[in-house]
Design a protein that fits this description.
The protein is an all-alpha fold. It has helices at 6-78, 85-95, 97-122, 125-142, 152-166, 170-180, 193-218, 232-265. The chain has eight helices and no strands. The relative contact order is 0.15.
Length: 271
């Protein structure tokens, strides 16, 4: 077998290095989308239109519960059965447990968004930029997709890097970066053409996979509204629709409350 020319190896390693840089940037971009931009866009959406949408959901649920209460009371009056409002309320809460879970999820998500915004606000622009740069450089050496030969210890360190990025912990990231700073510029130690070509093929496949994942992320909420949130007309229209829905729901609720009061007073129950 003829020896492999060193310039061939050199070109393949150069191509592998370029592909590795590209993959590391894409993985860092994916992390940025999921950790930073997702929260930022969701917070913007909720502040501009989402809070009203959820208020509509809350009031719609409230109205449905009231209508269910009217239905149960009407039945009991018709059947001349005793009316225990506390038990009726407990029954309705059980029937609407799914809606209650949705409300809890919303409240928890808003609490999380607030916490993440506070973390983001605690970083200066320079520190935020530095955090991203260190994440990208560490990904090149520690991300298991880029480096199949990383040790269990290095994978554990990589998880700490991810956690530091998610928590906007600049001090922790600097410490981790310091641990690996010396190895960041070490060239990939590969000498076999077939091995390098296999690595190139794998990295190319991972690049395509990551590009698809990025496209899928951007095709989901809240990324689908990124441009809408810059459009005052869209925001005005959404706000107007939700305000009108809320007005109608409140009107129906007041009418239902009055109907229930009259029904209960007919059997001597003050409401």
């Amino acid at each position: 077998m003829l020896p492999i020319e060193s310039d061939q190896i050199s070109k393949l390693l150069e191509e592998l290095n370029e592909l590795t840089n590209q993959l590391a940037k894409l993985l860092a971009e994916k992390e940025f989308l999921l950790v930073d931009e997702l929260v930022s866009l969701e917070a913007e959406y909720m502040n501009k239109v989402g809070h009203l949408e959820f208020e509509v959901f809350r009031f719609d649920t409230k109205l449905k519960k009231l209508n269910r209460k009217i239905e149960i009371v009407r039945e009991k009056i018709a059947n001349e059965e005793p009316i225990d409002l506390k038990k009726i309320d407990e029954q309705i809460e059980k029937e609407f447990s799914q809606e209650k879970e949705e409300e809890q999820k919303y409240d928890e998500r808003m609490e999380y968004i607030t916490e993440e915004e506070e973390k983001e606000a605690s970083l200066s622009e320079e520190a935020a930029k530095s955090l991203k740069e260190m994440y990208y450089l560490l990904a090149k050496k520690l991300h298991p997709d880029i480096n199949p030969n990383v040790t269990e210890k290095e994978i554990a360190i990589w998880h700490r890097v991810q956690t530091a990025y998610e928590n906007k912990d600049i001090e922790e990231m600097r410490m981790l970066f310091g641990l690996y700073e010396e190895m960041l510029d070490i060239e990939i130690d590969l000498t076999q053409k077939e091995e390098i070509e296999k690595r190139i093929e794998k990295i190319q496949a991972l690049i395509q996979q990551t590009l698809l994942q990025l496209a899928e992320i951007r095709a989901q909420f809240p990324f689908t509204h990124k441009q809408d949130l810059k459009d005052p007309d869209w925001i005005f229209s959404k706000t107007a629709v939700n305000k009108e829905l809320l007005r109608q729901l409140k009107e129906e609720y007041n009418m239902g409350t009055e109907l229930l009061r009259v029904m209960l007073s007919s059997v001597g129950i003050k409401y």
